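May I ask for a sample protein chain and its fold as tokens?
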Amino acid sequence: MAVRLDELAVPVIGAPMAGGASTPELAAAVNRAGGLGFLAAGYKSATGMAEQIAVVRKSTDRPYGVNLFVPAPPADPAAVAAYRERLRPEAERWGVALPEEIGPDRDDWEAKLAVLLADPVPVVSYTFGLPTAEESAALRAAGTLQVGTVTTPEEARAAQAVGMDALCVQGPEAGGHRGTHRAADAAGELPLLELLAAVRAVTPLPLVAAGGLGDGAAIAAALRAGAVAVQLGTALLRSDESGASAAHRAALTELPETVVTRAFTGRPARGLRNAFIDRHGPYAPPAYPEVHHLTAPLRAAATRRADTDAMHLWAGTAHRLARTGPAEDIVAQLWRSARG
């Protein structure tokens, strides 16, 4: 099924939020509202991704997307070891063991591409980098529309060069991981509307705006700034179909501020500021996915005890505007408000 992002009935895309927040049910709900739902394949096996695709296909006859994490080269093991020693007292306090060795992790990249080539989906987007030109060409030949996530004009040029059909322009207001193409890159601070203009100056590709879009006015401003659609993540975290935990949902309205930190995964990510970030953020190395695996036992233990002082609580700057209820209704309400 051919897809044009500038022809969506409602120009809203459900952000692919890896780690459980994005569900097949959420993707289908965004589709019912007239937008484009997305699955998050990050952290899943190729089999797990295929299983979620099968669920979405049964739930909607509209196009949908799948997001992939682009694998990174190995990080400095000494930096990871130093951070492990810093975290060890915390692990001992909560009775969990940190992994002493962290092997290579390509997030099942090759197997996922094989699945998506054998059984194509309408849209694939990429985060943390780009496919090779050859990989992009193969998916294009399979009929898949491809979207590259970019945070700078330089990344936008690179995305166009490898054959992306559209760009998701992620501003610094966005919750969760920044989509920088290298883990060590500093996260840009150019606000979303200015970033859209800067990216538009270097590429004619269709642009999707992402980051801090929590109400109709913000959505309308992004569309006026040249985006063909907006991508909503935090705005849907409290919806009925979201996979976010009860503690995460509550913290969105209870905790006052967000910050960008490497504390949990080694990649810059915006989350609700808490004690774990304050204690460890300044010392976390730019090592992804190594730090992600290193802190996984600590994060799991914090989630089990609903400890918002130690959980990773990804959230964008408009987190206090997140609404409850069916995602289909939330998208419809926001679009009505955006249209004035």
Summary: The two ends are 32 Å apart (CA to CA). The chain has twelve helices and eleven strands. The chain has two domains: 5-71+106-244+323-338, 74-105+256-312. The domain at 5-71+106-244+323-338 is CATH 3.20.20.70 (TIM Barrel).
